[in-house]
Amino acid sequence: MNHLLLYCRPGFEKECAAEIRELCEQQGIYGYCKLEENTGYALFISHQPDGASLAVEQLDFHDLVFTRQWIACLPILDEVDTNDRIASLIGYVTELPECNELWVEPSDTTEGREMQRFCNSFGSAFSQTLRKQGMLPRKAANRLHIFALSGSRFYIGFAPVANSAPWPMGIMRLKFPHQAPSRSTLKLEEAWHWFIPQKQWHQFISSGKRAVDLGAAPGGWTWQLVNQNMFVTAIDNGPMAESLMETGQVTHLTEDAFTYQPYKSFDWMVCDIVDKPTRVIRLMTRWLVEGWCRETVFNLKLPMKQRYPEVKGCLEYLHNELNAAGLKARVAAKHLYHDREEITVHVRVLDRN
Ligand SMILES: C[S@@+](CC[C@H](N)C(=O)[O-])C[C@H]1O[C@@H](n2cnc3c(N)ncnc32)[C@H](O)[C@@H]1O
Predict the structure, then answer these.
(1) Which fold has domain 3-170?
(2) What torsion do the CA atoms of 273, 276, 282, 284 make, to the nearest 10 degrees?
(3) Assembly state and interactors (predicted)?
(4) What is the pLDDT of residue 300?
(5) Among candidates 272, 243, 132, which has minimal Cα distance to 180?
(6) What pLDDT was estimated at residue 304?
(7) How many whole angstroms from its chain centre is CA 55?
(8) Which of the listed residues 233, 237, 243, 340 should we mutate to test ligand 1's pocket, taking the one with most ligand atoms within 8 A of CB?
(9) Among 8, 178, 309, 332, which is most exposed with the fewest C-beta within 10 angstroms?
(10) Would you say residue 353 has pLDDT above 80?
(11) Cβ(221) to ligand 1 under 6 A?
């Protein structure tokens, strides 16, 4: 298969395309991208007949910042017979590797959301037919995807279960915790789910840890830290929610996060300050290099233009500085579902020389 379909937040198709081309090139997979702005997807078409299959096998899905989901797929199937879509599509399933389940998904756009009910009912009918024919063996390592552009235009393809997003449309849906003082709270919760496997939570996100929240007010992120029974120093000139202060787990300092220096190191530092990405990345790097925290989640606000080069530049700066300081760290970045004009970065220091 030489088509690779990438789902993304509408408006970020260019970043998604630039990133996949670069990562594929690094693996010797060459091709070009096709995209239309605000459609919520981009297409990479490899010059090699098996370029897309190779990409989902050789690249690590976690390395993609702007892609929510990817599928190696056949060229678009246009004008599918709407009287019997299943009969029209079932033959194509045999051209794909064995898959264990089927997801029929729309794009994350207004038109896409209007197709959600159709996708659900078509997906369940098609799955039943495939199961009856033994075409969705449960132990298969891939998932079958149908990306529906309309009732008659589809991409059909597959994604390796172990190397793709485990949520339909690549979207992690979280329930807003009503006690939290701001919707921003979901960004930190999603970041933890994305960057830290659940089985490691008890080790890394646990009771008694000390955390600092830079740019904390009104306290959505602090709420997540408190909810994990951490003790939090909240830095912000703005007011923190009373309910958080009443827990006795929060110390509020009305200081400038860019000049504040801790007298003792923290387990966690989180930062949701809206400022120039180059300024924020320098601050984050300083915290890590000085040893003021062991682990961090922070946001980098994106500029209006040149978003991909800006992200790359910031991450390169971080890597270079950590290397120069002899720090071994795990760095990962993602444009999360709850992020808008920003990306989220996670860094865990593994070793200090
Ligand atoms: C997007 S809000 C943070 C929302 C917060 N994470 C939440 O979940 O409620 C950004 C905050 O950063 C604070 N801020 C901006 N510049 C700052 C600085 N230099 N020092 C401390 N706080 C700053 C602002 O006052 C604002 O409250």
Answers:
(1) Alpha-Beta Plaits (3.30.70)
(2) 20
(3) Monomer.
(4) 98
(5) 243
(6) 87
(7) 18
(8) 237
(9) 178
(10) no
(11) yes
